[in-house]
Amino acid sequence: MSNSNTVTVKSNCHLNGFLSAMGPGLLMAAAAIGASHLVASTRAGAEFGWQLAWAILAVNLLKYPFFAAGARYTAATGESLLHGYLKQGRIYLLVFTALNTIAAIASTAGVAMLTAAMLTQFVSLPIDVLALIVLVSSLGILIFGHYALLDKITKVIMLALTVTTLIAVALAFNAPSIIHANFVPQSPWQWVHIGFLVAMMGWMPAPIEVSAWNSLWLIEKQKLQPVNKQQALFDFNFGYIMTAILAVVFLALGSLVMHGSGEQFSPSGVKFAAQLISLYSQVMGSDSRYLIGAVAFLCIFSTTVTVIDGYSRTLNMGWQLLTKQPDSERRLSLVMLVLSVFGLSIILFFKGALLPLLEFVMILAFMTTVVFAWLNYKLMISTALLPADRYGSAMRLLSWLGLIYLVSFAVLFIYWMLTK
């Protein structure tokens, strides 16, 4: 065999190794491209045009060190972030688990209602009944299919949604302008919009506790095949960069198809779902409505599945470490069931009002994200890691900029709530 052929074979094997190792990063992307992208990014484009595009990219950059901690710590130690929190001190794991429990219930309710809202476009049943169906279906996939099935399903759905959205945005650039002659654009940087800005940035690209999910998913992936540090970081970076790009793509769709039209998203889950699908069908043709609806539903459904799986794994692991009990698949299934029941109760409380529920969940995520960010940063500079695996000067600087941004906006939001 010639040298050139040998190099080609080695390159192909190297690439195949990276592709086969992918999974946790894509699951993280699937969790992110739910409410934060389909709802917050699209709504930002519809209401403010392109004005928030740079802010979305900046948020993704400033949060990067805190999300990267999950893949980096686990790849370096073979342990989850939760093991790292416990090594820092029992109180750190207790704080994480307490806040994670609150976030788990709220987030499960939010994504399940959004999924049910999308399903109303195909099934004429009350949104709370559809939410129950969504939650039961998600539990079936997770309890009987486990991580391997979730890994395979997510890759297909992510590809379908990405391709469909890119086509829709490309067509929207060539569509006739829908801006009314007397339309006056408003600035998002007004005091009245602080609540929306905090909500959008709270789940952009996702709640920071997702880093712990990524850590646990990486451990599950390593049970199926070996994943080295380089592969783990590549998988994470690919998924993270894709979420940042798609956030801007969804903003573009809202801006090109809805901004300046005089139409606003309805707080009703059923009406919102119809409006969202119309954004696509306006540029891709009315015949594509059901196809787009199916892809959007599958995307949100995959988000619901990953959210239930991710939160349940972290809650189960937190309980296991705090009580020093052995690992148990049965306990994990029980946590998933309890989490779904509490999530459904929140859905019933909000009575189909999707946007108020999602805004509540996103704001909650932003207020707790400061703590999660600090826990991850503290762990990544600790002696629990070898010097080569700790954050260097560049990542430390970016982390501090991120922490300053998170704390500043949290204080600003609290002041806004007290004075509005």
Question: What attributes does this structure have?
Answer:
420 residues, mainly alpha, Amino acid/polyamine transporter I, 15 helices, 0% strand, globular, transmembrane helix
Overview of the molecule:
- The protein is mostly helical.
- The protein has one domain: Amino acid/polyamine transporter I, CATH 1.20.1740.
- Helix 4 packs across helix 14.
- The longest helix has 47 residues.
- The N and C termini lie far apart (74 Å).
- About 4% of the residues have low confidence.
- Keywords: Membrane, Transmembrane, Transmembrane helix.
What's the arrangement of secondary structure elements?
Elements: H1 3-21, H2 24-32, H3 35-48, H4 53-77, H5 81-88, H6 90-119, H7 127-173, H8 194-202, H9 210-224, H10 229-257, H11 269-284, H12 289-323, H13 329-350, H14 354-380, H15 393-419
Helix pairs in contact: 1-10, 2-7, 2-9, 2-10, 2-12, 3-8, 3-10, 4-9, 4-10, 4-14, 4-15, 5-6, 6-7, 6-11, 6-12, 6-13, 6-14, 7-10, 7-11, 7-12, 7-13, 8-14, 9-12, 11-12, 12-13, 14-15
